[in-house]
């Protein structure tokens, strides 16, 4: 529960909205999707199966689609919140289920409520199945940036990303991607790293690059069945994810001359360059965006859409108030709360304790993927340092990228194994990280 006296967020940061106009509805039935119905799924309890407390039953929108008054309210408020920049992310489920008319209306509302010179960014996450020429031309005209889900070759993509009747979706997704290329629509590829694909990092990277895709994002699949508390059998393990990141990094690094953009690597490189990472999982705390459900309900994070974290409704709670609310501040502060295992880790300045939705998975008191990131940070250190030196015009040298806290060889290993460092992860660490 949220503390009633929690104060407002202590640091300013860019604000954006992650909007779910069709809620969790989708035209695919991906095995690993966290919207699947499960007996004790908090998301289902909070949104999809709970009555809307703000309206009469007869007023609820059918099929979890966003109503005009909700859309108009959130766009008007967001356009007024920052007269320099307004950022909208459209996600699901599958947001294109709302139809092209819905997004045409959204753009018209942005025009109506915008100020002269105001910049507007629209991002759309989609499985690509409903895209056609009309969609593509609209997306290009208004400079939407798309994230299209593709898990690699058909053999891997079609394993989990299927229709309700079990047929794979790879061929249709590729058709849509070629359409986007022909029509000049900007897009990124989003690949979910699961128990199967985690063992094929290099192969998947080579496939995506071979298909001409230059902007890539890899998302670890870590899902727990709330009915049993056990990790789902399709979830990636720390060992697999660590190997995956290292394999992909070696391909991406390309002898010191990267030719593609991998979102996590770009974010980490920015930290080596002395900047703040542009991804919330590598930032000191959360709180930079709000989730807007189809009915206007506001939540602090896509992975924490649950009743006890509800911040209000856009028709009743001003966005400016929600962004400064005690509820959002306390949620954001939980990521920054110190954990012993993280405090002694040399990679803390890079990881920033990671995304705290992974804390406690499988009973671990630290980040479930901690060992994967330790392996990756050690493996990629020299490469990132070389890139940093080149970008900054500095002479090559083994300098710590950021302030670190070295760990003694006889100290407990920060990965939480219970072993001494010299008996566990010491072999993966650059020498300057280990005392004595």
Task: Outline the structure in words.
The protein is an alpha/beta fold. Helices cover 34% and strands 12% of the residues. The protein is built from 14 helices and twelve strands. The strands form two sheets. It has a ten-stranded mixed sheet with strand order 7-6-5-4-3-2-1-8-9-10. Strands 11-12 form a two-stranded parallel ribbon. A hairpin with a 4-residue loop joins strand 8 (289-292) and strand 9 (297-299). Helix 2 (68-81) runs parallel beside helix 3 (100-113) and helix 7 packs across helix 8 (238-253). The radius of gyration is 22 Å and the shape is globular. It starts with 15 loop residues before the first strand and ends with a strand.
Record keyword descriptors for this entry.
disordered N terminus, two-stranded parallel ribbon, disordered C terminus, 12 strands, ten-stranded mixed β-sheet, globular, alpha/beta, 436 residues, 34% helix, 14 helices
> Which structural class do you get from the secondary structure elements?
alpha/beta
Strand ordering within the main sheet = 7-6-5-4-3-2-1-8-9-10
Q: How much helix, percentage-wise, in residues? A: 25-40%
The largest pleated sheet is described as: 10 strands, mixed
**N- and C-termini, Cα separation:** 44 Å
Ranges where pLDDT stays below 50 over 5 or more residues in a row are: 1-12, 38-61, 428-436
Please give the count of helices. Answer: 14
What is the CA-atom radius of gyration, in angstroms? 22 Å
Order of helices and strands: EHHEHEHEHHEHEHEHEEEHHHHHEE
Q: What is the total tally of β strands?
A: 12
Mean pLDDT across all residues, rounded?
A: 84
- Quick one: overall form? globular
Strand content: 5-15%
């Amino acid at each position: 529960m949220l503390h009633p006296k929690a104060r407002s967020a202590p640091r300013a940061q860019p604000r954006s909205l992650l909007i779910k106009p069709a809620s969790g509805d989708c035209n695919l039935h991906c095995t690993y999707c966290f919207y699947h119905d499960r007996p004790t799924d908090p998301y289902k309890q909070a949104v999809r199966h709970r009555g809307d407390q703000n309206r009469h039953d007869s007023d609820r929108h059918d099929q979890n689609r966003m109503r005009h008054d909700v859309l108009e309210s959130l766009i008007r408020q967001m356009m007024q919140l920052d007269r320099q920049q307004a950022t909208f992310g459209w996600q699901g489920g599958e947001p294109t289920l709302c139809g092209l008319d819905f997004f045409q209306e959204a753009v018209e509302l942005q025009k109506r409520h915008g100020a002269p010179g105001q910049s507007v960014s629209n991002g759309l996450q989609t499985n690509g199945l409903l895209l056609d020429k009309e969609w593509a031309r609209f997306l290009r005209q208004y400079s939407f940036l798309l994230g299209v889900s593709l898990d690699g070759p058909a053999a891997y993509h079609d394993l989990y990303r299927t229709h309700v009747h079990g047929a794979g979706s790879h061929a249709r997704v590729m058709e849509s991607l070629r359409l986007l290329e022909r029509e000049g629509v900007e897009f990124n590829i989003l690949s979910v790293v699961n128990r199967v694909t985690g063992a094929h990092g290099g192969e998947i990277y080579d496939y995506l690059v071979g298909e001409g895709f230059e902007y890539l994002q890899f998302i670890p699949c870590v899902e727990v069945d709330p009915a049993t508390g056990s990790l789902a059998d399709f979830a990636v393990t720390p060992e697999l994810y660590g190997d995956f990141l290292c394999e992909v990094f070696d391909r991406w690094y390309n002898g010191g001359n990267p030719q593609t953009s991998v979102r996590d690597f770009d974010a980490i490189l920015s930290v080596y360059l002395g900047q703040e990472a542009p991804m919330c999982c590598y930032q000191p705390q959360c709180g930079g965006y709000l989730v807007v459900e189809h009915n206007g309900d506001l939540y602090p994070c896509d992975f924490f859409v649950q009743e006890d974290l509800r911040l209000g409704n856009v028709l009743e709670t001003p966005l400016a108030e929600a962004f400064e609310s005690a509820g959002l501040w306390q949620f954001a502060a939980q990521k920054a709360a110190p954990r012993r295992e993280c405090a002694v880790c040399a990679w803390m300045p890079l990881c920033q304790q990671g995304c705290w939705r992974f804390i406690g998975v499988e009973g671990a008191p630290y980040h479930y993927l901690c060992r994967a990131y330790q392996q990756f940070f050690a493996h990629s250190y020299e490469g990132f340092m070389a890139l940093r030196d080149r970008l900054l015009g500095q002479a090559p040298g083994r300098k710590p990228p950021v302030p670190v806290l070295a760990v003694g060889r006889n100290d407990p290993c920060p990965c939480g194994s219970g072993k001494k460092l010299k008996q566990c992860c010491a072999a993966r660490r650059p020498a300057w990280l280990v005392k004595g």
